[in-house]
Each structure stands twice: as C-alpha cells, then as structure tokens.
C-alpha cells in the first residue's frame, strides 16, 4: 500500500508569497501522525528561495489532513521551509510565529479568518463582460441567488465540500459584494492551526479551480473604481475576552492596536493601499478607528459582543493576500505581549472610538 502525500509550501515570490506543491509516494498503509511523514527537499532556485549553486531547501511537515481530491488514505501536507542545515528559511513566517504562540499559550487565543477572493476566467472577473464594460452596479450580489447575480457557485460549492472532507475547520461561505467575489471562513482555531488550515484551504481553492478553468486571485483590489476590494478580516479573542467582563479586555486590546497600527499595516498584505481607502466598508490606511458594528472602522466590535459583554473583535485591515502566520504573530505581540509601536501616521497612536449601526 502507498499513500500519496501532497507536500505544500510557501515560496519566495515577492511581495506576496505563493503556494507550491509536489507529490511524495509514501510506502505505508496510512498516516497517523505528522512524524510518519518524511522530511523532503526541493529546488529553491526555482521558487525564489535559493541561488542555483546552493539550491536545496528542506520541507518539514507540520500539519496534514485528508486529501479530498485524491481521496482514500491520501493526504495534504503543509510544510515549513528550511535551509539545507534544517534551520528556518527567511521566507518561513511560521517559524517566527512559533515562539510567540508558545509565550501566549495560556491566553488561549482564537482566530477566525474571513478569506475573500475573486474568481477570474481569462483576464476578467466572472460576471464582467469579456469585451470590456461592466456588470450592473453592486447591490444585489452579496449573498445573492439566481443566475443574474451569482457567478461560479459550482466551483465554490465544490471547494467547500473539499474543505469539509479534508477535515479543515471551515465555518461558512458567502457570495460577496462585487460580482465574481466570494468568501470562506476558517476558524476559530489557535494561532498556528488557523494559518496551516487557511493555507491548505487556499491550495484547495486553486486546485479545485483547475477543473473549471477558473482561477481565484487574492489581489486586494482586483477592479478599480466603485467595486469592493477583497480582505481577510481576522476575528480574534483570548480566553479573557470570551469570559464575563471580556468587553473591557477587548476595548483595552483596541487601544493597544491603535498604538501599533503602522507595524500591523506593514505586514497586512501588499497593495492594501488600493483597498483601504475609507470607502467600500473600509477605514483609510492612514487612520485607526475602532467601533461597535462599524464596518468603516479598522477594528469592529460585533454587536453581539457588546450586548453580551464578552466575545471577540474583528480586525478588518488585513488584505485578502495576507499571510495568516504574520497576522497572528502581530496580534499576539500587540495584544498579549504589549509590544511597543510607532502609532498611526500623523498621530501618535491616536485611536478614535465610534458607534455606528451597520447595514449588514
Ligand atoms: P462577518 O459578519 O464579519 O461577515 P463571518 O460570519 O463571515 O463574519 O465570520 C465570522 C468569523 O468569526 C468566523 O471566521 C469565525 O470563525 C470567527 N469567530 C467566531 N467566534 C470567534 C471567537 N470567539 N474568536 C475568534 N473568532 C471567532
Ligand atoms: Mn464575513
Ligand atoms: Mn466579507
Ligand atoms: Mn467581516
């Protein structure tokens, strides 16, 4: 018996790392533990991770799940990338998160990430006429139904089923505000788990799309003008936030986040300036505001959290192309480890609290 193991890793593409994968035939009945999977290597000179004369990089399995595409006992394997000597590669952002996650373990942090993405067939998003021009303006597409409003559902549905069959912690899906744009959510899960599972869910999205000749992009502003961008809202809580009196802890976290806005924005995804304009349900990139139900803020405190007095906060700043290992590291550093920051541009860590009732 053999198990086909698809080894998945983040490459060295700049400014946004992409996914790569290759298959290892493992001579075994079944994989029970991560350590049943052999360490492996690849040609880093083809992934922007090594020069040609020292091209070997290592793959260290860190998470595996069932492979819903191949079925049977086959598995998908998320890997960390190492240098030939086994130390973490410069592109290995998971290795930077590991010690931070360990230091904060007693806080029991949970993350839930809303992954927005845009489906493309050729050069245009699904629903945008091939020969130029635009579909009807935004309004009916968000959570819509019907062939005039919804594009790509077969692929989206198959991706969801694949995530469930893989055993990933998937929370839900919805059609988004711009035609051809969708969202899936992963979590709530711990800091390393949410990143591992989000990267595998992204891999499954691209892989499922191959069958349909449709590609998903995580670019934060795929269409300029009056069309929503794509984000990766990161919902975050600690045990104290989820317990009685947690709202105070959440508000204190919002204040700390305002002191370190610049550091977060620097690692919240490339080209995010195009998306965080202050329009289309975003706060401007050079402003920091938090508020109850406010979808024009940097951080939203969900209404249910205010009503109950405990729950979680939603960081709306990360772009769709963010790296969840980096975002989780920053949130833990700022909120749990009280890391010092340089504030918000033009202000010295000014934060503004707003109360706005959202439309959705
Ligand atoms: P929105 O109303 O912003 O569109 P969604 O329903 O799309 O929200 O996503 C909610 C997200 O919040 C999910 O990813 C879920 O995993 C996450 N979540 C729920 N409870 C918690 C919690 N206590 N801590 C962190 N994340 C949470
Ligand atoms: Mn959502
Ligand atoms: Mn959304
Ligand atoms: Mn959201």
Small ligands present? adenosine-5'-diphosphate, manganese (II) ion
Main pleated-sheet profile: 10 strands, mixed
| Overall tally of structural domains | 2
Query: Might you state the CATH topology name of the largest domain?
Result: Creatine Kinase, Chain A, domain 2
Uncertain runs are 355-360
Q: Helices and strands: which structural class?
A: alpha+beta
Protein described:
The chain has 360 residues and is α+β, with helices and mostly antiparallel strands. The protein folds into two domains: 2-91, Glutamine synthetase, N-terminal domain (Ubiquitin-like (UB roll), Roll), CATH 3.10.20; 101-336, Glutamine synthetase/guanido kinase, catalytic domain (Creatine Kinase, Chain A, domain 2, 2-Layer Sandwich), CATH 3.30.590.10. Helices cover 25% and strands 25% of the residues. The chain contains eight helices and 15 strands. The strands form two sheets. Strands 6, 7, 8, 9, 10, 11, 12, 13, 14 and 15 form a ten-stranded mixed β-sheet that branches. A five-stranded mixed β-sheet has the order 2-1-5-4-3, covered by helices on one side. Helix 1 (93-103) runs parallel beside helix 8, helix 2 crosses helix 3 and helix 3 packs antiparallel against helix 8 (324-336). The model is unreliable at 355-360 (pLDDT under 50). The structure holds adenosine-5'-diphosphate (ADP) and manganese (II) ion (MN) (3 copies).
């Amino acid at each position: 018996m053999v198990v086909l193991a698809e080894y998945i890793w983040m490459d060295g593409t700049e400014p946004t790392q992409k996914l790569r994968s290759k298959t290892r035939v493992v001579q075994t009945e079944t994989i029970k533990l991560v350590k049943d999977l052999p360490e492996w290597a690849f040609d880093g000179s083809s992934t922007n991770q090594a020069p040609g004369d020292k091209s070997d990089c290592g793959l260290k399995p860190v998470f595996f799940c069932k492979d819903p595409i191949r079925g049977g006992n086959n598995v998908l394997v998320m890997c960390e990338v190492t240098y030939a000597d086994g130390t973490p590669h410069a592109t290995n952002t998971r290795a930077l998160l590991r010690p931070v996650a360990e230091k904060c373990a007693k806080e029991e942090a949970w993350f839930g990430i809303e992954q927005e993405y845009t489906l493309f067939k050729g050069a245009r998003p699904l629903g945008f006429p091939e020969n130029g021009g635009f579909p009807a303006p935004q309004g009916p597409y968000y959570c819509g139904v019907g062939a005039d409003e919804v594009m790509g559902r077969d692929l989206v549905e198959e991706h969801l089923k694949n995530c469930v069959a893989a055993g990933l912690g998937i929370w839900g899906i919805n059609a988004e505000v711009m035609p051809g744009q969708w969202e899936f959510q992963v979590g709530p899960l711990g800091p390393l788990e949410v990143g591992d599972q989000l990267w595998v869910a992204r891999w499954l999205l691209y892989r499922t799309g191959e069958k349909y000749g449709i590609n998903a992009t995580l670019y934060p502003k795929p269409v300029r003008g009056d069309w929503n961008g794509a984000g990766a809202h990161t919902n975050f809580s600690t045990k104290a936030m989820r317990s009685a009196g947690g709202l105070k802890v959440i508000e204190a976290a919002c204040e700390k986040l305002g002191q370190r806005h610049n550091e977060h924005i620097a690692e919240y995804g490339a080209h995010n300036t195009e998306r965080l304009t202050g329009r289309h349900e975003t706060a401007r990139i050079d402003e920091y505001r938090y508020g109850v139900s406010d979808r024009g803020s940097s951080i939203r405190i969900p209404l249910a959290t205010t009503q109950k007095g405990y729950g979680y906060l939603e960081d709306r700043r990360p772009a769709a192309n963010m790296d969840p290992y980096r975002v989780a590291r920053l949130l833990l550093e700022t909120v749990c480890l009280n890391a010092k920051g340089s504030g918000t541009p033009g202000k010295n860590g000014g934060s503004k609290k707003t109360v706005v009732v959202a439309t959705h």
